[in-house]
Amino acid sequence: MSVQKTGVPMSEKQISSQVGKFTSRGVDVYYGDKQALFGIDIDIMENKVTSLIGPSGCGKSTFLRCLNRMNDVIDICRFEGEILLDGQDIYASEIDVVELRARVGMVFQKPNPFPKSIYENIVYGPRIHGMIDGRSDADEIVETSLKRAGLWNEVKDRLNEPGTGLSGGQQQRLCIARAIAVNPEVILMDEPCSALDPIATAIIEELIDELKENFTIVIVTHSMQQAARVSQNTAFFHLGKIIEFGETDQIFTNPRNQQTQDYITGRYG
Amino acid sequence: MTNLRAAHIKKRYAAERRFKMYGLLAIMFALGFLAIMLVTITFRALPAFSQTYVKVDIEFSENVIDPDGAREKVQIAKADFQKIVRDGIYALFPEVTNRKEKRKLKKLISSEAGYHIARVLLADDQPDFEFIGTKQSVWVKSSDDIDSFIKGLIRRDVDESRRRVNDQQIGWVDQLMADGRIEKRFNWDFFKFGDSRSPEDAGIRGAVVGSFFTLIITLLLSFPLGVLAAVYLEEYSKPSKMTAFIEVNINNLAAVPSIVFGLLGLALFLNFFGMPRSAPLVGGMVLSLMTLPTIIITTRAALKSVPPSIREAALGIGASKMQTVLHHVLPLAMPGALTGAIIGMARALGETAPLLMIGMVAFIVDVPTGFTDPSTVLPVQIYIWADSPERAFEAKMSAAILVLLFFLVIMNAIAVLLRRRYERRW
Predict the structure, then answer these.
(1) Chain A: which residues have CB within 8 Å of chain B?
(2) Are A171 and A118 in contact (CB under 8 A)?
(3) What DSSP state is assigned to residue A180?
(4) pTM to 2 decimals?
(5) Could you tell me if residue A4 is inside a domain?
(6) Could you report the predicted ipTM of this complex, rounded to two decimals?
(7) Contact (CB, 8 A) for A151 and A173
(8) Which CATH superfamily is domain B205-422 in?
(9) Could you tell me if residue A145 is inside a domain?
(10) In which domain, by residue range, is A82 found?
(11) Residues sharing a CB contact under 8 Å with residue B287, sequence separation 6 or more, in sequence order
(12) pLDDT in tens, B94-114
């Protein structure tokens, strides 16, 4: 299963010198009869931001959702291949998917706070994972999570108000705080800024930059500028395949593949 | 050219106005019939809310009530109180001696009057028997015919042969009126008593309580079952031939005529399981068979309308499937499910046919005190009264319809409120 697939240009330096947090080998995903991903090989580095770019329908979100097995809930979705998290196959039968998602958090395209109070939004995750023992524990988790998401100062006086009453950008940071609260190792972000205005986007991007100190981040984005700004590594997807994967600087300044060149210069996509 | 266009625009405006008018007319038509229905029912029901009373001087003679002088409650309760009431009314008209006329005279008052006097006097466990031997003025209910006459339902100007109250009786009533011995009071007994063969004693308490017990059973059975079924179908089941088959059949069940459920209840619950006849327990079970599809369908719709983003949010931070459903999806779907349940309950409340099959159409005087007591329900009570020959039951029937409508309106109002209150919280 761990046969190295070639044919995908990958920066030699990365694979040899650093350990991948996630290692994906030969990942094929099918929706019914339709194949959505073709042999995805990729290494996601620890404490780095990896961005997945590509035109709509290229499979980047599908791949992202493979990393915490969110595709499991889609009945017709079928997975083949291997994804290792710290060397452990996350699709192995002994892996508990709930446990996995506690380690690999996710932030979605549209801010989706629970229709409950801000406090409850943060506390919910730690509570179901048995990380909270008493009220003071909960208070502490709420405060640190909101602080790390840069939202504490804005909401500290109204923790009992509904999370849905916040602005779009604040809601998205609340969702990030909610993901942080269970203390994951990886945070997956699926176009986290696509529903936000430029100012809120800038705040989130800054936040992503800070978060990479403690978390490994994988972000799907439509905005090439965003990928260039926030990520260290970039993978370019097209029609379910990885066309090019490497350091962001190299991809954007000196792409090796003509298709990548065409996409980042805006010739299609 | 411009003229042509102007004419065209004018025509278009006219067409718009006409179209709006048709809609308005349709609404007015519907509202008009509703108003006619409500007004006629209310007017017909009004007589049921009052009752004519006659003041009679009653001599509680020891000879009749307690000939042994033992002063024992059980013995006294068996005494002929109706006779002392009769004697009381005879005493008001001493000139009447003829037996035939006396029979007419005693028909002025309710044949249950004596029973009610005894009931009041002997209400305590240890009643004092001081009333024995005294003479007291007591207001007793008039018979239903006199009541109808006082309310103008039996008209004076109709020929005597076609009137249930004859000229002589009218004369007596006129004299009683003149003496201030006739009075109309609010008919509390209508809300206190169960059914009776005498219209003046018939009340809806038994039917209301029966309906209440029946609906409790229906709710307890159909709501949890319906919600569980809906959650399984919507959240857990994988699309397959089997689930498609189940879905089609749930939709079919919702359309099955209710009397069929009654037959099922008769065959299964009564004949096979040998459960009690005419009991709210069985009525509730039959009605929950009927409400179940409604609740399943509305709950599924409510679950479907919970945005997938909420599910993703919960799954994304590592909630299990059950936690996602119980903590997030179901609470958000609850108002929808409850609305469905209340509407289902309202339908069950108005249902008659299946209950006829399991014997809830019986004539039952006692107000039920439990789930297995024989009882009847509101719509069946209406049916029973509609079937009764006595004139006065017509008003009772209309009054019962009003009560039924009152409960239905309240239930639907709660459903609307719930829907308003919890609409789109995300």
Answers:
(1) 68, 70, 73, 75, 98-102, 105-108, 110, 112-115, 124-125, 128-129, 162, 164, 175, 178-179, 181-182
(2) no
(3) H
(4) 0.82
(5) no
(6) 0.85
(7) yes
(8) MetI-like (1.10.3720.10)
(9) no
(10) 10-111+185-264
(11) B214, B215, B217, B218, B222, B261, B348, B351, B354, B355
(12) 888 888 899 999 899 998 888
